[in-house]
Amino acid sequence: MQTTILGNTGLTVTRSAFGALPIQRLSKQDAAALLRRAYEAGILLFDTARAYTDSEEKIALGLGDMRKRIVIATKTGSSTPEEFWVHLDTSLRTLHTEYIDIYQFHNPEEVPLADSPLYRSMLEARAQGKIRHIGITCHPLANARAAMESGLYATIQYPLSALSDPAEIDFAEECGKRGVGVIAMKALCGGLLTSAAPSMAFLRNLRHVVPIWGFQRDSELDEVLELERDPPAPDEAMRARIEKDRAELAGNFCRGCGYCMPCAAKIQINMCARMPLLLRRAVYQSFLTPLWRQEMERIEACAGCGLCASRCPYKLDVPRLLRAAWADYQAFSKEYG
Predict the structure, then answer these.
(1) Residue 234: its pLDDT value, please?
(2) Which of 28, 31, 205, 228 has a C-alpha 20 to 30 A away from that of 174?
């Protein structure tokens, strides 16, 4: 597999990395087997987070004996130094490691700067040898640019895909000039892009950008490994597909990140809010089931409290999206169900 140096970190990583959020939904043994298979195929960078329930534990189970041969990135959603140290020590213990290669602030509302107690905690942890490089993940572009311009972060994780706009690509290119490593999340727009090829071809042109693919199934890993064996190059057909996807996903849409949850009404917001797109971009029969109708019906219990919208990193009007999704689901079910 092709490798690159991640910014100025000196870390050698593969051009495709393993996003470990989806393995929360697997058994420990199945997750360990998938992680091991990815490593044996050549993948070197594994990205997780303290917030991803037992994901760190599963990485330790599957790759613990390969610790010195892989790069581990994890995240803290801490808001105080005290919480920071609890998160860090828990991650170290759960991952069965003495150090974390890239420790990232997990999508903070404001970017911690040099005078921040949280950033000073990062510096202290690095001085103690518990972390090696300081990173951050950002969903808003303004935060990602602020992190880049601060000069304080070795890596920035940001949503990039074949649908990224010129401002986002300009950000990624500027990071390259400054020696900041870019880890691209949401390369499939939260599952709304049904093929990895366009995004891989698009992001391959940015040598310092490393996409993390969220793997849950062998078939998903197989797709990326096959593309790695023969990396796709943009051609007219692919450009036409990208433009079609761009038109269909234009405007504000839910990326499925899940920061809006939990919901007091038990609505699966990260699935329900994007149901109109899933019905048209996936195998719709999978969603026209009694179980999914029951999940969508929960939207009727939405009190419009706005807590989900206040948490959304994309500033979406989530209650409005949910109401529109439920109306669309009922109409679609009547026509195709």
Answers:
(1) 83
(2) 228
